[in-house]
Amino acid sequence: MTHLEKTSAAPRVRLEQRLPSYWRVTFNHPPLNIFGPESIPQLDEIIAALETDEKVKVVVFDSAVEGFLLTHYDFLAPLEDSTSIPPGPTGLQALPDMLVRLSRAPVVSIASIRGRATGVGSELALASDMRFASRERAILSQWEVGAGLVPGGGPMARLPRLVGRGRALEILLSADDICGELAERYGYVNRSLADAELDTFVDALAMRIASFDKQAIVDTKRLVDAASLPADSDIAPEWDAFVASLGRPAAQARIKTLMARGFHRPGDVENRLGHYVGQLGS
């Protein structure tokens, strides 16, 4: 077992090499797995390793935090901590850059969704090659519009390709929670499985893929990518729109109200974020 210590910051993204060909990446930032500028270099180093390691064939993303795969961006961190991070190798800003590179990496990426995949968590799942969800415990959400924000990690470009235009607009503009069963019906995830079966299924699939020839995997994924992935020019405006929306009075007022009700803290607001953003305009 190998764990990369990425930066001087506490490790929030843990890498386990179960086999040279099969890696697991576990988000571990209790209590809510909030994603922010301190997490970016940690995830970036892992994605760079996925791009360059000759043996790895499949990576699974999961969580060590009960109830949360990965949630929204960190609204308590100073904005300049995020905007000062230089663009990545694609020329995109750091978060969309990492997600684009994950989609194109010469490995198969699988999101194992138990708990909330909210905002950045949903965007990471969408950037992964496959998504499998706990039927009882998975919640996916692009909640941002309900708080006066524009999502910044690529869901407007990726969701319509998976679920169609109408359902993508429903997910984005309702800003509501989507359970695992509905996510499967819409095509938001590949499958929803009984929670007791999720880990076994994902591990067996990952082990099966890891047993195959890497060049066959890489060539097949590359050709599917050419037919299905959005261009960088489709992704780039989303982060700019997110940052611009943060400064608008409507968003600031709604985030302030959410904070007063318990946003960014363990409790009912984070557990039922879709419900609470639906109450902000009342």
What's the topology here?
Blueprint: E1 13-19, E2 22-27, H1 40-52, E3 58-63, E4 68-70, H2 79-83, H3 94-104, E5 108-118, H4 120-127, E6 130-141, H5 155-163, H6 165-174, E7 178-179, H7 180-186, E8 191-193, H8 195-210, H9 214-228, H10 232-246, H11 249-261, H12 268-271, H13 273-277
Parallel strand pairs: 2-3, 3-5, 4-5, 5-6, 6-8
Antiparallel strand pairs: 1-2, 6-7
Helix pairs in contact: 1-3, 5-6
What do these coordinates show?
This protein is of the alpha/beta class. It has a single domain, classed as 2-enoyl-CoA Hydratase, Chain A, domain 1. It is built from 13 helices and 8 strands. Strands 1, 2, 3, 4, 5, 6, 7 and 8 form an 8-stranded mixed β-sheet that branches. Strand 1 and strand 2 form a beta hairpin. Helix 1 packs parallel to helix 3 and helix 5 packs across helix 6. It starts with 12 loop residues before the first strand and ends in a 5-residue tail after the last helix. The N terminus is likely disordered.
